[in-house]
Structure formats: C-alpha cells, structure tokens
C-alpha cells in the first residue's frame, strides 16, 4: 500500500507553508499528496446553509491546492474536506499517511502554548510521524550543507523508528544524517558494581555513550550506504544538546512517547522543547 504524504490545511500562513513543504517532500519520495481540511458549520451564519458554507471552504482549499499543483505538475494530489473536529480529522488522516504535515505558529510570548491545543493533541495521539513547519519556511533552508539531525537515546530498538525516518528523509534529499546522543553524569547512588564494571570495560562514560550511539546507527548505515553519517555525543541535557546541533539543520527528528494527564495527552519534554525552539521543521516520530 502506498501511503500519501498528508498536509492539514486551514488557510493560515503556517498551514500553507506546511502544504508547500509536504508537496516538495512528496515529489522527492515519489508519493502522492493528500490535503485535508477539517471544518465545522458556523451556527452564527444561520442564514447560510451547510452546502454553501462547505462550498466556501472547498473554494479556499482548492486555491491552495492549485498553487502547489502548479509548482509540481507531476504530483498526484487528492483533497478531503471533512466535517469534523480538527484533532479527530487529523489523527484519522495520519493513520493512513506516510507522515502528517502541519503548520506551527512558531515563537510566541508564552512558552508552552506555541503549538496550540490542536497541534499538541495531534502529535500526542497520531500513530504516524508528524512534521511541524513554521510560517516563512522556504526551500532554500533545504540547501546542501544542512544536515538532517536526529536525536538518539537508549538501545538500538528504542529509537529505531526515529532513525529510520531520519535516514529515509536524508536519502530522499541527498543529505547527511547527524545522529545526536546526549548524556549526563548519573547520581552516585545510581552506580552499582555491575554498572561500574561495564563502564570500566569501555573506558568511561563518554566512550560508553559513543559506543551506544554507534551500535544504534550501524544497521541504518548498512541499510542506507549512500547516506553520509556524522555521530555526535555531548554531555548536557538532551533538549539543549539537540537544539544546539540543529542550529543549521534542514530538519530535526525527535521521538516521542505520549503521557496521559488529567488535562489530556502530553508529549515528552525533549520533543516539547525542540518543537518550541528549533528554527527548522521538526518531525516527531512515535517510538515503535
């Protein structure tokens, strides 16, 4: 089954940037593009019936689609105007997509609300990768010399889905993968005789972390031999190290596990921080 690259469009500047990004990525990967717009009837427009309102919505989406089709005449594009809530419609659309691409408002005054409730819920609930693109994103940001940066943690299986997405993307773009692993000194009480022996065997903490990163990346190097790889291990918090490495990235890829709270689903702190502060598009990939 061929999965499309799906873009959620709502007419805002950031969603149109996301549509442009999705169109370029679909061309690179030889995939179709699906455009989804979720809407609800406006009761305040009581004199205007549902079909008329839907026509207005379809006309607006159609204009955006014609623009991206004009830039990429070879691209197969389908459009779905769905009468449903945005989160419901976008999570459902993501299930059948190679990735879901959404717009992000970018930096704002109140950290923690830059994504909006819809974006955060979709990222937390979607079972497929979600890419966030800021308004003003331009193809020039994908120029040669900018890496696809990916955060890696744990063992090879822990971040396999994240690394796979990064290598597939880099292969489609002719880019380098920069795999990043952060580490910190554990508290003294975390040491055990077994862990101390393990660290002694590899020469200390930093060599241990470098070995762990190399082992996680190795199968993807073998699977994508055409993709150059840079391995980066640095002491510091995962979010800060990843953001520093992503300063000149064309795409940053992070993993996520969703957490359920009394006020809804939340994503992890690393993904949350990167989404709020990275200047390039960010792909959030559910851990397998």
From TrEMBL:
Highest taxon listed in the record's lineage: Bacteria
Entries under PANTHER family matching the protein: ADENINE NUCLEOTIDE ALPHA HYDROLASES-LIKE SUPERFAMILY PROTEIN (PTHR46553:SF3)
Please give the name of this protein: Universal stress protein
**What is the species listed in this Swiss-Prot or TrEMBL entry?**
Streptomyces cellostaticus
Where's the UspA domain? Answer: 1-134, 153-286
Member of which family? Belongs to the universal stress protein A family.
Coiled-coil ranges from the UniProt annotation: none
């Amino acid at each position: 089954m061929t999965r499309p690259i799906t873009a959620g469009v709502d007419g805002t500047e950031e969603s149109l940037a996301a549509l442009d990004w999705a169109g370029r990525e679909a061309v690179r990967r030889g995939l179709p593009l699906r455009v989804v717009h979720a809407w609800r009837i406006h009761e305040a427009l009581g004199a205007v019936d549902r079909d008329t309102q839907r026509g207005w919505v379809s006309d607006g989406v159609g204009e955006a689609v014609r623009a991206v089709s004009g830039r990429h005449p070879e691209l197969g594009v389908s459009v779905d105007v769905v009468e449903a809530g945005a989160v419901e419609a976008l999570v459902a659309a993501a299930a059948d997509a190679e990735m879901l691409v959404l717009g992000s408002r970018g930096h704002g005054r109140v950290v923690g609300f830059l994504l909006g409730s819809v974006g955060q819920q979709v990222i937390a609930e979607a079972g497929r990768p979600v890419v966030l693109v800021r308004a003003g994103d331009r193809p020039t940001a994908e120029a040669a010399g900018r890496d696809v940066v990916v955060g890696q943690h744990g063992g090879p299986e822990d971040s396999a889905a994240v690394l796979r997405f990064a290598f597939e993307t880099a292969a489609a773009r002719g880019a380098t993968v920069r795999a990043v692993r952060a580490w910190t000194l554990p508290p003294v009480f975390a040491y055990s005789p077994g862990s101390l022996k393990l660290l002694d065997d590899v020469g200390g903490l930093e060599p241990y972390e470098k070995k762990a990163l190399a082992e996680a990346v190795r199968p993807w190097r073998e699977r994508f031999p055409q993709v150059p790889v840079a391995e980066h291990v640095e002491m510091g918090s995962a979010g800060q190290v990843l953001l520093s490495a992503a300063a000149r990235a064309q795409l940053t890829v992070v993993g996520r596990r969703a957490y359920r709270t009394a006020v809804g689903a939340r994503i992890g702190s690393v993904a949350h921080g990167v989404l709020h502060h990275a200047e390039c598009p960010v792909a959030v990939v559910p851990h397998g």
